[in-house]
Amino acid sequence: MLQNFWYPCEFSSEVTNKPKQIILFNQRFVVYRNTQGQVVMMKDQCPHRGAALSLGWVEDGCIRCPYHGWKFLSDGKCIDIPANAPRTPIPQRAKVQTYPVQEKYGYVWMFYGDLPEAERPSLPTIPESIFSSMHPVSHAHLDAANYMRVMETNLDFAHVIAVHRTSFGQRIPLNSTVKYKVEEQDSSAVAQFTFDSLSSSKSFLNVLLGGRPQVTLRLSFYLPNFTLVEINVGGDSRLNIKFAVLASYCPIDEKTTLVKRTLYRNVLPFSWVDKLFVKLDRALAHEDTVVIESLDPQPLPDMSKEIHVAADALGVSLRKLQQKHLAKNLNLKPNQSESNNSNGYGLESVPTSLLP
Question: Keyword Aminoacyl-tRNA synthetase: yes or no (predicted)?
Fold first, then answer.
């Protein structure tokens, strides 16, 4: 698990005054809202006998353990042990580890690391126009696949013509050269690719768009587990259709990922149409899932064990930056591949020739 990063791990709308368990990398966390509506996140383990606090309840903004009723403040400090006599001192060790949280873009972000507040990185900056002019709908699905594999697929321009060949992929020319430039930052990157649709010019949509519509895909990732997909159909034509998909990839374990997606659209911005768009987005995501779950191995292997072409540049950038920060966490140089792989996620050194 990368240290000193913000992890989007739950939809804000899913966090209430009822404790909820979240699992990341086989670690259990509990999240809830206190009486001020603030999100509280703790290790989901009572220091007394190890019970899952997520099975307990919230009382006066505090959380009670389901086993013996110990009561913990939002800073993790125990303030009540029901079985003790009045005024009995509470053990200093009776405290639960807590984690800093923020809410943004409809997600709860947990900071995992030891940096003081002033030194923590900022959350990603997403274009405000997405939220001000587009209608959102969210859903989640579980993939029996490694989170890096799932995340990488959502950054892959070239897979569309094959994985989605029976859906929207048939609009893309099969022989299109996938060529683009990656703009890379310290822990994020973005790339853009434009093509002309193959759909019949007699279709209603294409008539409105003035012929074969131009489609632009802009894909961004933000370590450790967040992506943004922006789809612009029509370019500068009369009817400009836009979609955007925010997604967090929550690694439950090496081979299980809970994906939380928020789809934004500027067409049919009515809540009663949401189910239709969720159904469509789930269908497209399932097309990815069928293939991703078949990948062998699931944890990313040494880069030299897979073949890479120019169209893979954004995915290679993801792997390179993830490895760089993992090495930094381990206080190692990036070429110390044996240790880089110690977290069980298959990350080893990236040959310079493969870097974008």
Answer: no
